[in-house]
Amino acid sequence: EEAVKFPKRLRHRGKGKVLATIYKLPAGYRLYWRARVDGKRRSLMKDFPTYSAAKREADKVLSDLVKGSPVTALSTGQATHALAALERLQTFFQNTGRHVSLLAGINEYCEAAEKLTGHTLAEAVERFINTVAIIQRKPLNEAVVEFLENRKHLSKSKDGKRSRHSPVYEANVASWLNAFAISHPGNAVCDLSKDHLNFYIGAFKELSAKSRNDRRAAIKMFLRWCAAKDYLSQSHRLFEAVDFKTEDSEATEIDFYRPGELRTMLSRADADLLPVLALGGLAGLRREEIFRLEWADVWRVKGKIEISARIAKGRKRRLVDICPALAAWLTPYRLKTGLVWSGSAREFEGKYATLRHDLSIPARRNGLRHAFVTYHFATQCNENLTASEAGNSPQMIHAHYRGLATKADAAKWFAVKPARKASAGKIIQLATASNC
Question: What is the pTM of this model?
Answer without folding.
Answer: 0.53
